Amino acid sequence: MLLLPGSILALATVILIVALCVVYKEQQKGERLFLGRFRSWLDRRFEALTHRVRQLLHVISISCMYIVHQVRSGLARAIAPRPRNRQQPKRRLEFEKTDNHLSSMHDHKNDTALSTAQKKKLRNKKLEERM
Q1: Which of 14, 69, 72, 130 is the most exposed place for a label (fewest CB within 10 A)?
Q2: pLDDT tens-place string over residues 71-98
Q3: Looking at the domain assignment, is residue 10 inside a domain?
Q4: Ranges in the chain, pLDDT < 50
């Protein structure tokens, strides 16, 4: 019973030591010793896969931040006290509130204002006088 797991462990250890030795020699030489094209192709595939995984993780992290922000702002709106909608009285001009000289002047100006036809006639008369 112990023979099978022990032999598997021994074989895995030998393969690991051989792989480490090959990688060490390749790093010393600066090039791949065997299966160069296949390993280059495999490296390109893994780089493309890691690039896509990083993009996916970036999109997921931004989406999570957006969801957290939306939940936080929704809770803030739900918890925050709402201001009272008190309608303030319309502000009136100061001379309308009191009965003083300015208000009487304003009333007189409105009472004696010329109509548009009278203004036009007066303008034409003044222009004729100048000529």
Answers
A1: 130
A2: 999 999 888 877 777 777 677 665 555 6
A3: no
A4: none
| DSSP letter string, 18-38 | HHHHHHHHHHHHTS-SSSHHH
Q: Tell me the helices (H) and strands (E) count for the chain, helix number first.
A: 5, 0
**Does residue 108 form part of some domain?**
no
**To 10 degrees, the CA torsion angle through 114, 120, 126, 127?**
160
Nearest CA among 46, 14, 8 for reference residue 22: 14
- Domain holding 58, by residue range, is 35-78
18 contacts 10 by C-beta, under 8 angstroms: no
Q: How many structural domains does the chain have?
A: 1
Strands (E), the chain: none
Distance of CA 94 to the CA centre of its chain: 47
On whether residue 109 sits in a domain, the answer given is no
**Interatomic CA distance for residues 131 and 129, integer angstroms:** 5
Distance, in Å, from the CA atom of 121 to the CA atom of 131, rounded to the nearest integer, reads 16
DSSP at 57: H
